[in-house]
Amino acid sequence: AQSVTQLGSHVSVSEGALVLLRCNYSSSVPPYLFWYVQYPNQGLQLLLKYTTGATLVKGINGFEAEFKKSETSFHLTKPSAHMSDAAEYFCAVRPYTGAGSYQLTFGKGTKLSVIP
Amino acid sequence: EAQVTQNPRYLITVTGKKLTVTCSQNMNHEYMSWYRQDPGLGLRQIYYSMNVEVTDKGDVPEGYKVSRKEKRNFPLILESPSPNQTSLYFCASSLIGYGDTQYFGPGTRLTVL
Questions:
Q1: How many helices (H) and strands (E) does chain B have?
Q2: How confident is the prediction along chain A (116 residues), in pLDDT tens digits per residue?
Q3: Which terminus of chain A, N or C, has less C-beta within 10 A?
């Protein structure tokens, strides 16, 4: 069974500072990896995903994530935080093959606050 | 516009009163799914469907039913709601294929008194 761990349920950064949101997964084979963002009172929007190929993935709004197989990690970063980045971020995994290979397993989320 | 729609967006009901939350997508996606979101627990899958008339349980199916009679629609049915089903519900859909992205609806906030 897969699992996803997001370190830190709340993260605060100053405007202009580096954003780093951590995600580690547990899976017998490297899965597909996703980051979603949820703005207040809205649904989830895909930020970026890793399927195969280049391990550094660029997404929308200046975010990027790097898949590190040896560390089973897929941390999300943004060089300079903006007030509009304040939201909740979810890391999710999907099996590459096999039973349930379309089921997304989500982490518990990290709420990002940006301090002016 | 490609989208997943859910209705109603907000619902307050009482224990035991049957309700249905509708979900519809206009992207011709084969895969559809229901999740519930609870504070501190993230999103958990309730049911999913790989195509018309094909449905299966997710991680937390107890107390819920679904049907998939048409490709675009995937309603969630609570036949006898209880207070522990108070939650934020999301419908999602995707193509079935290599790394395909799931697209989410805006959510339905359900309160069961």
A1: 0, 11
A2: 778 999 999 999 999 999 999 999 997 777 889 999 999 888 899 999 998 888 999 999 999 999 999 999 999 999 999 999 999 999 999 877 665 567 888 999 999 999 99
A3: C
